[in-house]
Amino acid sequence: MKKLNELFTVTYGVNLELYKLTLSDGLDSINYVSRTKKNNGVSARVERIANLKPNPANTLSIALTGSVLEVFLQEEEYYSGRDIAYLTPINSMDRYTLLMYCTLIRHNQFKYCQGRGANTTVGEILLPEISELSKYKKYDVLPDISTIPDYFLEEGYEKACWYMDNIDQHDFENKYRPSFFSEKLDTYRQKRKRKPCSLNEIFAIEYPKTLIYAEMQPYLDGINFVSSKGKNNGVVGRVEKKDGIKVYPKGCITVPLKGSVLSTAIQQEDCYVAHQTAVLTPIKDMSIYTKMYIITLINANKFRFNYGRQADNTLKDLEIELPIDEHGDFDWKYIDNYIKSLPYSANI
């Protein structure tokens, strides 16, 4: 590993303000690069200024504040705004190596925020040496996106390229192929009948008492606190465990009733649950596969709600459709097998 300033010369850019420049699409116009994370950092094209030397082409523009460590390869000369530096390779690097370093530098963004810029520390960032970088299989040509299977593309083109370079496709498919599938099940699925089911038929529904995260004491070794947020399974942090507050067990299902309404999740650990969030506990034993199936059906009803129409009085009556067997009973075994038949189910 080497420090960034051992691989690149760090130079502060021309530090211009866009509102003082003249926008132009003329033949002699030039890109203006700012701290934005969009459009390769380019905010506009502007007229050149006489006797002002632009930042050189084939350098990396890097934001030192704002969208800290948003870094892009600029293949043309460019002007830059406030708190933009450019990186010039000390040793010769082709465009593919420069693009790799863009990604590697961005991996350090977690160290910074709006209140902590990289003005004085950017040169200290540790990066692999050129000899340590993996190469594209066809190094002179970027991978053709049409050759990448769909399941590699879920996280974007760059991740897909990385997967194709670093993961054996055959091994990947063997690991993640459906763990349960047959022509018999496929035919069975097509003929399967369903019937409506309200949530209170299969779950005990609890509405926790008022519990506010801001009034709890943060504690890393404490217990998860689940709110009505839509991200991270609703977990907003860990708090100190106290007597007198009900703990909901691992495996319970939480359903926000306000805020991110119906962003339903299975909790992986014991937790506290805030008000405005319901807790569903299966009346009978229920596998993780069945829970995954059901929360997908619950989430499909989000369109019925918004910030003006919440689910606090209607959740118990919410209906989902579940497959039934030949006797008209809910077919839990079929539901399990169906989820197990899906890609990535081996990781549940």
Task: Describe the overall structure.
By secondary structure, the protein is α+β, with helices and mostly antiparallel strands. The protein folds into three domains: 2-132, DNA methylase specificity domains (Adenine-n6-DNA-methyltransferase TaqI, Chain A, domain 2), CATH 3.90.220.20; 145-175, no CATH class; 193-347, DNA methylase specificity domains (Adenine-n6-DNA-methyltransferase TaqI, Chain A, domain 2). The chain has eight helices and 18 strands. The protein has helices at 4-7, 95-106, 157-166, 169-176, 183-191, 199-202, 288-299, 332-340, and strands at residues 2-3, 8-12, 30-33, 42-46, 59-63, 71-74, 78-80, 84-89, 126-127, 193-198, 203-206, 218-226, 235-239, 253-256, 265-266, 271-273, 277-282, 319-324. The strands form six sheets. It has a four-stranded antiparallel β-sheet with strand order 2-8-5-6. A four-stranded antiparallel β-sheet has the order 11-17-14-15. A three-stranded mixed β-sheet has the order 4-3-7, with no helix packed on it. A hairpin with an 8-residue loop joins β12 and β13. The longest helix is centred in the N-terminal third of the chain and has 12 residues, at 95-106. Mean pLDDT is 85; it is low at 136-140 and 179-185.
List keywords for this structure.
single chain; 348 residues; alpha+beta; Adenine-n6-DNA-methyltransferase TaqI, Chain A, domain 2; four-stranded antiparallel beta sheet; 18 strands; 20% helix; elongated
